[in-house]
Amino acid sequence: MATLVPNIILNAAILGVIYGFLGLSLTIVYGGMRIANLAHGDIVVAGSFITYALTAKFGYSPIAALPVAFTYLSVLGYGLYRIAGKRLQNSREPELASFLFFYGVSLMISASLLFVFDADARAISFQFRPLSFQFLGLRVPHARLVAAGVALALVPVIFWALYQTIYGKALRGAIMNRDALRIVGIDIDRLSLFAFSISFGLAGMTGVLIALVFPAFSPFSGMDYTILGFVVIVLGGLGSPLGALAGGMVFALTEQLTTLYLGQSTGLIAGFLVLVAVIVVRPAGLMGQVEWRA
Amino acid sequence: MTELSQATAQNTRKDAYQSASSRLTRSSLLIWNATLAVMFAVAAAIPWASNGLSFWFYLLQWVTLATAVNLVAGLVGYLPFGFVAFFGIGSYAAAVLTQFHGVLAGWSICGAAMAGTVLALLFAPTMRLSGVFFSIVSLSLSIVLKSLVSILPEHVAGGSSGVTITAIKDPSLAYYLMVALCLVSLSIATLIAVTPYGLRLKAIRDDAGAAAMIGIDVTRLRLSVWLLSATIASTCGGIEALYSSVIDPSASFNMLISAKAIIYAALGGLGTVMGPLLGALLMSVVDELIWARFPVANLFILGALISLTVLAMPKGLIGSLLDRHPRFRRWLF
Amino acid sequence: MLRISGVSKSFGAIRALREISLNIEPGEAVGLMGVNGAGKSTLLNCICGLMKPDGGAIELDGKNIIGMAPHRVSMMGVGRTFQVPRSFRGLTVLENLIVAPSREADREAKADRAHKALKRVKLDRLASNYAWELSGGQQKLLELARLIMIWPNVVLFDEPFAGMHSDLCRMFIDELKEMLQQRVAILLVCHDPGTLYRLSRRIIVMHEGGILAEGSPEQIKTDPKVVDAYLGTAH
């Protein structure tokens, strides 16, 4: 048990960052545009499958999949926004309309994955050398370390982009108050298009990380990731990028520690109960500023 | 705008005096009731006319669930992603009562209904939340419930492998129960639509604060419709358990059940009575056709169909029709 | 009639209301003036039960209404309008009126009354249209019609004239005067001092959550504190 706990905590930290990423890319779109992207998890899984194709079929390192997944999926996001974004935002109930629209998209993506890759669960066959590292008495799989490293390298980049660049600032402004932005004279449509593409690209990269960390993925695991993503952002506070990371950490830690002490099946229960408890005590989430109206 | 007002101006006065709480005329209600009567006469005759009872049973199930979820989603404006919790608890209540405690079918369905009501009371505090917060907490609770049910000991609730009902085996009884439940839920929806109760619920959906300001008891009305909707769903789950006679946690608490119910209702038109009925009927048939015709691409086509419908008609078939063509407002609801 | 004494309300470190006291008698229109963020809307929200004050008392006919649910306050005879009109968008114009609970059992009579109210604000031709089809000004009239329908004893108007066409304003003012004739007590929040001076004999100026000045239009116009804090900068 003595070495198990630090190990679990390390694991939870890696998972937490990945969960946080799930939420981060989701919150950019949901917070700024009120578009509930129900296909988010399927984009993530598509990222995992791109990694699978690159490593298994062409023998590349999973690292090479990061830019590929980002590019392909942000193009998909760009296309989807061009087709549907404006209509969804202008509809009188954007949340409901986007929920339905992206449910359809989610079906289409998993159907396409199913068509290309079959229904079997897949795992990437690429192996890092050495397989794992020993330090401080902990054994950490190389792949997880790579995932954690990539995630930790991406976090500052994303936060720099959100907090320092004009687009990022405008985007966070949009999360707080859309109408004000319109008055200030920012082109909301271009901003939304940009955010949408970035969000899809980030989701794809999250898929690469997930392929590194989780043993297997199938065309139908998308919905699980969508749920996880929403749970993380609600837990952390809608529209708060930092909250998404915090939410991911809290959820992962709860899940992993409970699994350790009470067994496999209780991990998820505990995670969800923590969410319910947080929302009951603090309806805006851990770092949310306001309670959002429907 | 002016064209619109002219077109409706002459009807206005008549409407106002004819039926005080709704814009409907008496004849439109009559037609609707007659349609329902014919439909249910047909439904009741199905076991004699067709061998494929299963398709019809599930058709009715989806109409019932879409109508039930519409009470909450369309009338008070919550999107309960975890709606399946009520369906699942009903399934389990009925299955456990009949299989482990030897309760008769009718009573086990009553048990299922009660289980749903009690669960809805337990979940009632979540109605303080709004928007996506409500939806996600609702979803989480349904996942928690599913996990809890599967870790219960096997002699209590069958464990993760579920329950197989061998005590009662009567699909046609379950079918008729479903016909009855479907009729009841549609009647309730119709009643709500034509009484002041329904108007107040819609007012709450549009603006709860303003509704309270004119004297509407928001909390109580919300709670009542929440209980009603949950009870219908759990009864439906109980009947489905008797019909299929095999239940397990992942099937009874499948998130797809919530999603499908909401989607069917929304594609038909949330907040209307005819919408969920039409949506569930159409989509069940379309689903069946696509599966038969395009075995490989069925999911893709279904997805594309849903997405395109939403883009073309964001308020669903009935809702968009009412928005665009004022003359239908006296006939469709 | 409506008696407010020592009402305070804070949001975190911000003190939105500090010890506000005021009375309104039947047939009297009290004007409430102040810059944005002075606490006017918070005060209205506290009166009608949407917010709960931290301290103080609000009495209606001698009965404390603090902590009462908004719909109970409404049933006791308090009605209000909102700065941005809040109609029930998915209901028709007529339904927007008859949705209000009332004691009368006869639906026909209620519809009749609703129709008369719509006629008074000239919305009767649109009775069967959905509320979302109305323009902004028409939505304000719909709110007014809803008040006429309910006919409360105390009415709180939140910026009724903001962004309204002058013809509509006149109609609104006529209805307001009719209410005063019928001994309704009115609290009128208004940005524009000119309109307030014409409508109410007693005006209260709020500033940073507190009451800066109180008195007749003539007293307010010449009050140095008010000129300094409000009129001086705004006009």
Written account of the structure:
The complex is a heterotrimer of chains A (294), B (333) and C (235). Chain A has 294 residues and is mostly helical. Chain A has a single domain, classed as ABC transporter involved in vitamin B12 uptake, BtuC, CATH 1.10.3470. Chain A has helices at residues 4-33, 40-58, 62-90, 94-117, 142-164, 166-176, 178-184, 188-213, 222-236, 241-262, 266-281; strands at residues 132-135, 138-141. Chain B contains 16 helices and two strands. The longest helix of chain B is centred in the C-terminal third of the chain and has 27 residues, at 218-244. The model of chain B is unreliable at 1-21 (pLDDT under 50). The two termini of chain C are 34 Å apart. A six-stranded mixed sheet of chain C has the order 6-7-8-3-9-10, sandwiched between helices. A four-stranded antiparallel sheet of chain C has the order 2-1-4-5, covered by helices on one side. Chain C has one domain: Rossmann fold (3-Layer(aba) Sandwich). Chains in contact: A-B, B-C. At the A-B interface, α3, α4, α9 and α11 of A face α6, α13 and α15 of B.
Keywords:
heterotrimer, B: 333 residues, mainly alpha, disordered N terminus, C: 235 residues, alpha/beta, Rossmann fold, six-stranded mixed sheet, four-stranded antiparallel sheet, 38% helix, 25% strand, globular
Structural class by secondary-structure content of chain B:
mainly alpha
Order of helices and strands of chain A: HHHHEEHHHHHHH
Tell me the fraction of residues in β-strands of chain B, as a range.
Answer: under 5%
Report the structural category of chain A: mainly alpha
User: Helix segment count of chain A?
Assistant: 11
Number of strand segments of chain B = 2
Rg of chain A to the nearest angstrom?
19 Å
Mean pLDDT of chain B: 85
Task: Please give the radius of gyration of chain B in angstroms.
Answer: 20 Å
Quick one: overall form of chain A?
Answer: globular
Strand order of the largest sheet of chain A: 1-2
The strand line-up of the biggest sheet of chain B is 1-2
Largest sheet of chain B: 2 strands, antiparallel
* CATH topology-level name of chain A: ABC transporter involved in vitamin B12 uptake, BtuC
